[in-house]
Amino acid sequence: MEGKMQVECTIPKDDGTLASFVGFRVQHDNARGPMKGGIRYHPEVDPDEVNALAQLMTWKTAVANIPYGGAKGGIGCNPGELSVSELERLTRVFTQKIHDLIGIHTDVPAPDMGTGPQTMAWILDEYSKFHGYSPAVVTGKPIDLGGSLGRDAATGQGVLFATEALLNEHGKTISGQRFVIQGFGNVGAWAAQLISEQGGKIVAISDITGAIENSKGIDIPSLLKHAKEHKGVKGFHGGDSIDPKSILVEDCDILIPAALGGVINRENANDIKAKFIIEAANHPTDPEADEILSKKGVVILPDIYANSGGVTVSYFEWVQNIQGFMWDEKKVNCELKNYMTKGFKDVKEMCKTHDCDLRMGAFTLGVNRVARATVLRGWEA
């Protein structure tokens, strides 16, 4: 099943003038369960990218083995130029237009670029006016409205478990490895914190403001404090400033791109010194770079497995809401570790069967699971 809905959302701005925005929801596949995917508020909404991201969610949920399909949506707007009350009105109008399209057992949105727990709270409230109190209709909610403990750290925590599983396979542990992390947003910051707690040495980090390196290891708690106060890593005294463009080719054992897509390409792939790349971002490696790196013997842990911790804990949030029973943080992390460890084993098994790399193994696993569900339902063409 594939579908796309576009809606026009008109709201009064604070000055009384009317403004119109285009909202949309793309639903890719629901063979394995209700569709799941983020809602982004961003000025350039590229339909091709949104379709690709909805599809990516279908494979990612299948690899993680959680009972969902893929979707994606958003509103073409610049959230930075809207006041909080304008954002609230826009979110509520959008929800009114799509309330029949989303639903606990149909399509469960989550936050994405430009949206967060507050956005989810407004969607939940507006949706509940039509359908009664339904906390399970969105995930990534504030804790006070049925959000899950551990959801904020989930993608970074998943990256840690995924990295542990991969290193384990190679007879190594996090401790004693040298890491470079590109991106210090939610995912990069949590990954950095959790890796350094496990004894990993983080030798370089970058974000939009700049990049820093320290071969002895960056003090992550101090950097987190600095980044909060100065809105970024730039100017941090516990390391030397370097050119952000060179972050990916710094000397290290493990490279974690946790920012934008397409950053590892044929221009820089030859110069990468890492032995392992953990794709915390969506689609950070170009196909051309994939080829170059594989010839060099670099092992890449693909995004559809490596960053699936976020959607897995979203699934836990949904389960808790449906049961009306919340878990403590220890249970959330323990369950997440089970899923990530089992996921790695399943991907690895595919690689053995088909004699392929981890990316191919992960995609084959995902597509196979979706295909089996499709056939079992009697949908096959």
UniProtKB/TrEMBL annotation:
Residues the record lists as binding substrate: K36, K60, S314
Alphabetized InterPro entries for the sequence: Aminoacid_DH-like_N_sf, Glu/Leu/Phe/Val/Trp_DH, Glu/Leu/Phe/Val/Trp_DH_C, Glu/Leu/Phe/Val/Trp_DH_dimer, Glu/Leu/Phe/Val_DH_AS, Glu_DH, NAD(P)-bd_dom_sf, NAD_bind_Glu_DH
SMART domains: ELFV_dehydrog
The entry's keywords: NAD, Nucleotide-binding, Oxidoreductase
GO molecular function, one term: glutamate dehydrogenase (NAD+) activity
Binding site for NAD(+): T155, N186
Domain Glutamate/phenylalanine/leucine/valine/L-tryptophan dehydrogenase C-terminal: from-to ranges: 148-378
Active-site residues annotated for this sequence: K72
Catalysis: reaction(s): L-glutamate + NADP(+) + H2O = 2-oxoglutarate + NH4(+) + NADPH + H(+); L-glutamate + NAD(+) + H2O = 2-oxoglutarate + NH4(+) + NADH + H(+)
Important for catalysis, annotated site positions: D112
Listed GO biological process terms: L-glutamate catabolic process
CC annotations in GO: mitochondrion
Keyword Oxidoreductase: yes
Superkingdom assignment: Eukaryota
Pfam families in alphabetical order: ELFV_dehydrog, ELFV_dehydrog_N
Similarity section: Belongs to the Glu/Leu/Phe/Val dehydrogenases family.
Protein's UniProt name: Glutamate dehydrogenase
